[in-house]
């Protein structure tokens, strides 16, 4: 039986509505549609990024499937260097995160580092609960410590507000760990690297900025304690 010719987007759309396609087959079909659309709207994109990358942003976010950083920011491949994990936790002993931070800050020389938390975060819910979660218990330990440090404030809030507040506090904690990183300290002092905390609202798609005011005294103390030569 012969079929009418279809564009990549038409073909993948028919698979989507039928619901019969294997998830990987559907994803690969969508990739073809995306390549076709991208080459139409920006013919030089793949040749540009094929020769190297020079992103200005390092994004440290949650592994949650609902927060694809490039899409959320309205940017293109090559614009954002990325590290994601459960609950966007930056840990001073996490070699994976430290390697990404080092490469982004020292070699790519990004201008901005973003730590982004979000609403309805499963990691935050886990840290607020007291159920055993297996290996996740060890991973969420820094967030549980943040919870312990702010227990009175958190327990005074309604559950939804409590989760949002712990998300905010978790982002601030990760930013503080970043500020104690020797590579980050050097980049802030030498070329003005900026750090930002964001919260993504899963229900609205909007990003909000956490206020981060820091005095010179705090910077000086941190430099004395954590800067390495």
From TrEMBL:
<dbReference type="GO" id="GO:0008270">
    <property type="term" value="F:zinc ion binding"/>
</dbReference>
<protein>
    <recommendedName>
        <fullName>Carbonic anhydrase</fullName>
        <ecNumber>4.2.1.1</ecNumber>
    </recommendedName>
</protein>
<feature type="region of interest" description="Disordered">
    <location>
        <begin position="1"/>
        <end position="22"/>
    </location>
</feature>
<dbReference type="GO" id="GO:0004089">
    <property type="term" value="F:carbonate dehydratase activity"/>
</dbReference>
<feature type="binding site">
    <location>
        <position position="64"/>
    </location>
    <ligand>
        <name>Zn(2+)</name>
    </ligand>
</feature>
<dbReference type="InterPro" id="IPR036874">
    <property type="entry name" value="Carbonic_anhydrase_sf"/>
</dbReference>
<dbReference type="InterPro" id="IPR001765">
    <property type="entry name" value="Carbonic_anhydrase"/>
</dbReference>
<feature type="binding site">
    <location>
        <position position="121"/>
    </location>
    <ligand>
        <name>Zn(2+)</name>
    </ligand>
</feature>
<keyword id="KW-0862">Zinc</keyword>
<dbReference type="GO" id="GO:0005737">
    <property type="term" value="C:cytoplasm"/>
</dbReference>
<feature type="binding site">
    <location>
        <position position="118"/>
    </location>
    <ligand>
        <name>Zn(2+)</name>
    </ligand>
</feature>
<dbReference type="GO" id="GO:0034599">
    <property type="term" value="P:cellular response to oxidative stress"/>
</dbReference>
<feature type="binding site">
    <location>
        <position position="62"/>
    </location>
    <ligand>
        <name>Zn(2+)</name>
    </ligand>
</feature>
<comment type="similarity">
    <text>Belongs to the beta-class carbonic anhydrase family.</text>
</comment>
<dbReference type="GO" id="GO:0071244">
    <property type="term" value="P:cellular response to carbon dioxide"/>
</dbReference>
<dbReference type="Pfam" id="PF00484">
    <property type="entry name" value="Pro_CA"/>
</dbReference>
<comment type="function">
    <text>Reversible hydration of carbon dioxide.</text>
</comment>
<keyword id="KW-0456">Lyase</keyword>
<feature type="compositionally biased region" description="Low complexity">
    <location>
        <begin position="1"/>
        <end position="21"/>
    </location>
</feature>
<keyword id="KW-0479">Metal-binding</keyword>
């Amino acid at each position: 039986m012969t079929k009418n010719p279809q564009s990549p987007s038409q073909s993948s759309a028919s698979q989507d509505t039928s619901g019969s396609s294997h998830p990987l087959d559907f994803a690969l079909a969508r990739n073809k549609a995306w390549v076709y659309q991208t080459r139409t709207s920006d013919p030089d994109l793949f040749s540009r990024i094929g020769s190297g990358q020079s992103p200005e942003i390092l994004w440290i976010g949650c592994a949650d499937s609902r927060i694809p950083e490039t899409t959320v920011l309205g940017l293109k491949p090559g614009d954002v260097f990325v590290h994601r994990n459960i609950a966007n936790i930056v840990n001073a002993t996490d070699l994976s995160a430290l390697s990404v931070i080092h490469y982004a800050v020292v070699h790519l020389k990004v201008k901005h580092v973003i730590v982004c938390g979000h609403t309805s975060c499963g990691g935050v819910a886990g840290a607020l609960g007291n159920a055993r979660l297996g290996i996740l218990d060890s991973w969420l330990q820094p967030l549980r410590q943040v919870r312990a440090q702010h227990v009175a404030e958190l327990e005074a809030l309604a559950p939804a507000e409590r989760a949002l507040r712990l998300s905010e506090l978790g982002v601030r904690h990760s930013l503080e760990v970043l500020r104690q990183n020797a590579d980050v300290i050097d980049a802030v002092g030498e070329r003005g690297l900026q750090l930002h905390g964001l919260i993504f609202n899963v229900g609205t798609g909007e990003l909000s900025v956490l206020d981060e005011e820091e005095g010179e005294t705090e910077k000086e103390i941190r430099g004395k304690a954590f800067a390495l030569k």
